[in-house]
UniProtKB/TrEMBL annotation:
UniProt keyword annotation of Translocase present: no
UniProt entry keywords in alphabetical sequence: Ligase
Domain of life: Bacteria
Record-annotated Diphthamide synthase domain positions: 5-211
Designated name of the protein: Diphthine--ammonia ligase
Length: 213
């Protein structure tokens, strides 16, 4: 019942971590995949230093590796196996909600490392999950978003009022379709709140990113 959490630094992986503990699983280590330069996370574009600050607040080690999308799966399995040799883990925890091919991939790579995938948020109602996260004390800010939202949404805290605003714009409350990504600065299992500053807004193609410190 010991688990590795696939840790993006965002709200979904944080809430999956929280719910896994409520189900009786014991956290041992976090795993994050960085871009080829090893500077930012592959999924959310979060700097390595901030992810390390999260792991320190949680009180768990975090394992990083860099990868392109082309060799992502091969590298993921390789590092899962390495971590399983270092830590007494039996399960992997992921924050996916309802995208079936994501679940299939997570089960596949976990099985390759003799681990069992657990998805505590699976088949939950997207809107209800976000409201639950807020209620339990997960504080998340938007750190990247598409052009529909635009740079004015960078740095906004996910609140019930913001959820309503997003839905009125036709944006999924969870951002599950890639509309936005978040960074968690506080959670019930954090020892302290992270103080994160947005230095500037950057744009890459049709996506907006916050340069974080």
């Amino acid at each position: 019942m010991n688990f590795l959490c696939s840790w993006s630094g965002g709200k979904d992986s944080t809430y999956a971590f929280f719910k896994a503990m409520k189900l009786g699983y014991k956290p041992k280590v976090l795993l994050n995949v960085m871009n080829e330069l090893g500077e930012r996370s592959r999924s959310h574009g979060i700097p390595k230093g901030i992810l390390q600050a999260q792991s320190k607040s949680i009180g768990l080690p975090i394992h990083f590796f860099s990868s392109s999308w082309g060799d992502y799966e091969t590298n993921y399995i390789k590092h899962l196996k390495e971590i399983a040799r270092q830590y007494p883990i039996t399960h992997t925890v992921f924050g996916d909600i309802d995208i079936e091919f994501h679940r299939e991939w997570e089960e596949k790579v976990s099985k390759a490392a003799n681990l069992k995938a657990v998805l505590p948020l699976w088949q939950g109602n997207r809107r209800e999950l976000v409201l639950e996260m807020i209620d339990v004390g997960i504080e998340a800010i938007i750190v990247s978003c598409n052009e529909v939202l635009g740079p004015r949404f960078l740095g906004k805290i996910i609140t019930k009022e913001l959820v309503e605003e997003l839905e009125n714009m036709g944006i999924d409350a969870c951002g599950e379709n890639g509309e936005f990504h978040t960074l968690v600065v506080n959670a019930p299992f954090f020892k302290y709140r992270l103080c994160v500053e947005i230095l500037e807004n950057q744009q890459n193609g049709n996506y907006n990113f916050a340069l974080l410190k």
